[in-house]
């Protein structure tokens, strides 16, 4: 190895974004293995040898680590006290010292034997760099490019790796055309032996949350807080919001001037409807709000323990409160955490009349 080799390594460090210390340490470890493989007669344990590389000139030095003993009996792992003092008079019995044992032809052997290991370590380092970069984006939004579709999966290019958008993570109304740019929510980043794996989603409620944080300054600044989200991706979401500043209307902040803020999010989610709900610590108020756009006449808490409530609405509001295929009440129940039983006013009146007649 020489100065040109060192320059080449430093170019790799620069191009691949790998730590210089990591790469040199990896090479030194590889050279230890190469030495043990080709010069095993000089060593018999993993602690006996170390290799150092001059990071300027590229010179390689192999050292046998030997313990200073008064009365030598193991020439491989020990050195006589008298011999040690000839090297440095300050050495005492029990010290561990480095004795250079670099073979004359080791440079050639090192280059041949270490190449595969070095390449592997470089790959590992590159994977680790990608993993760390993605880990910083976990629970955040990333923009990807659609590559292809196969067996229900959509393959997405994320810059330094390819990720799979599984069927359950796809919005049913979206097509995912080749070369299409889409925003994705990173649910999880995993480190595996084959490199980082990323779980991405277009259906996760976290995507809606992050879009609001990016679109609404009051949320980003912490003035308005998202208290909860219930979502049926591609169809409808309900977002509960609360303002820490009584002078800031949380719903108005999320809607934005002329509705532009929420419309930008709706556009990103392929026209998914979004209900912005005023959060309240009083469950009767929160449940009534959550059933928007329906108007609620009364909320009756039936059980605090089981979190169940009966909702009374005008007959004209019943279908709106329940929603198409029960979607509105289903999303409201998820958002509030309460079991919701909706009754029309006439249904309740009839029950009351029957009870009065029976009495």
UniProtKB/TrEMBL annotation:
Transmembrane segments: none annotated. One of its GO terms (cellular component) is cytosol. Keywords: Cytoplasm, RNA-binding, Transcription, Transcription antitermination, Transcription regulation, Transcription termination. GO terms for molecular function: DNA-binding transcription factor activity; RNA binding. It is found in: Cytoplasm. One of its GO terms (biological process) is transcription antitermination. Pfam families: KH_NusA_1st, KH_NusA_2nd, NusA_N, S1. SMART domains: KH, S1. InterPro entries: KH_dom, KH_dom-like_a/b, KH_NusA_2nd, KH_sf_prok-type, NA-bd_OB-fold, NusA_N_sf, S1_domain, TF_NusA. Residues 137-203 form the S1 motif domain. Residues 233-306, 307-356 form the K Homology domain. Monomer. Binds directly to the core enzyme of the DNA-dependent RNA polymerase and to nascent RNA. Belongs to the NusA family. PANTHER family: TRANSCRIPTION TERMINATION FACTOR NUSA, TRANSCRIPTION TERMINATION_ANTITERMINATION PROTEIN NUSA. Participates in both transcription termination and antitermination. This is Transcription termination/antitermination protein NusA. The lineage of its organism: Bacteria, Bacillati, Bacillota, Clostridia, Eubacteriales.
């Amino acid at each position: 190895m020489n100065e040109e080799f060192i320059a080449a390594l430093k170019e790799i460090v620069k191009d691949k974004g790998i730590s210089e210390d990591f790469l040199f340490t990896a090479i030194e470890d590889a050279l230890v293995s190469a030495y043990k493989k080709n010069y095993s007669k000089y060593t018999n344990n993993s602690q006996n040898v170390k290799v150092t590389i001059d990071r300027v000139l590229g010179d390689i030095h192999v050292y046998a680590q030997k313990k200073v003993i008064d009365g030598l009996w193991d020439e491989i792992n020990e050195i006589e006290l008298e011999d040690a003092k000839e090297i440095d008079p300050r050495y005492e019995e029990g010290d561990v010292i480095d004795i250079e044992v670099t073979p004359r032809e080791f440079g050639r052997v090192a280059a041949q034997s270490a190449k595969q290991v070095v390449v592997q370590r470089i790959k590992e380092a590159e994977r680790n760099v990608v993993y760390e970069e993605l880990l910083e984006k976990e629970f955040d939004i990333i923009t990807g490019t659609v590559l292809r579709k196969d067996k229900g999966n959509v393959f997405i290019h994320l810059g330094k790796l390819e990720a799979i958008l599984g069927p359950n993570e796809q919005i049913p109304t979206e097509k995912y055309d080749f070369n299409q740019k889409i925003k994705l929510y990173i649910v999880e980043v995993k480190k595996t032996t084959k490199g980082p794996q990323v779980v991405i989603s277009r259906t996760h409620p976290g995507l809606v949350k992050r879009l609001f944080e990016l679109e609404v300054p009051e949320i980003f600044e912490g003035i308005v807080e998202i208290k909860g989200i219930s979502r049926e991706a591609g169809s409808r979401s309900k977002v509960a919001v609360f303002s820490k500043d009584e002078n800031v209307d949380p719903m108005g902040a999320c809607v934005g001037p002329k509705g532009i803020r929420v419309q930008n999010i709706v556009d990103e989610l392929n026209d998914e409807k979004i209900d912005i709900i005023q959060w309240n610590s009083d469950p009767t108020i929160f449940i009534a709000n959550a059933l928007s756009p329906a108007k609620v006449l009364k909320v009756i808490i039936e059980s605090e323990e089981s979190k169940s409530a009966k909702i009374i609405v005008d007959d004209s509001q019943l279908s709106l409160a329940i929603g198409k295929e029960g979607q509105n009440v289903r999303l409201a129940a998820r958002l509030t955490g309460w079991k919701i039983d909706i009754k029309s006013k006439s249904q309740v009146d009839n029950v009351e009349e029957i009870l009065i007649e029976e009495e």
